[in-house]
TrEMBL record:
Location of the Chlorhexidine efflux transporter domain: 1-63, 69-131
Entries under Pfam families matching the protein: BTP
Transmembrane region(s): 7-28, 40-58, 79-98, 104-126
Keyword Transmembrane among UniProt keywords: yes
Keyword vocabulary terms for this entry: Membrane, Transmembrane, Transmembrane helix
Organism: Photobacterium aphoticum
Keyword Transmembrane helix listed: yes
Protein name: Membrane protein
Length: 146
């Protein structure tokens, strides 16, 4: 993937993640929407940067066609990514929401569990849609030269 595509992939992922996470936290906490939105934007910004760095490294350890990755590799990818992210985001959430590290951890775990499933589905869909677009472009390119 090009740098531009990595940025597109990460921004789309995070925009959808912010919306879904704020909605979920609104249901389970007493924090105002404005605090939750600001916090999730900060967390998403950290996550987006971590996403680009982590996945560039991950792709070096697991080269080849991304759409052929099996469930075990995808589960490993999500678990390693989310574990590293928790180390950064728990203190950030505690500070931004003025809550204890334990409360921030509990909220972050809830978000993380949701994001883990969301990341699996998002990346699976993204990779397959990307592969289909590339195949379609290649097919059109071959037909144009025929």
């Amino acid at each position: 993937m090009s740098v531009f595509e990595r940025i597109f992939h990460a921004v789309l992922f995070e925009a959808l993640a912010i919306a879904f996470s704020v909605l979920g936290l609104m249901l389970f906490t007493d924090h105002p929407v404005s605090s939750l939105s600001g916090t999730m934007i900060a967390v998403a910004t950290v996550a987006m940067l971590w996403n680009m760095v982590f996945n560039a490294i991950f792709d070096r350890f697991f080269p080849g066609q991304r759409e052929t990755r099996g469930v075990a590799v995808r589960v490993l990818q999500v678990a390693a990514f989310e574990g590293g992210l928790l180390l950064i985001t728990v203190p950030l959430m505690a500070w931004l929401l003025s809550v204890s590290l334990l409360e921030a951890f509990m909220m972050d775990i809830g978000v993380t569990l949701f994001i883990a499933v969301y990341a699996f589905v998002y990346n699976f869909c993204y990779d397959h849609i990307r592969a289909a677009i590339i195949r379609k472009r290649q097919d059109h390119g071959l037909q144009a030269h025929s």
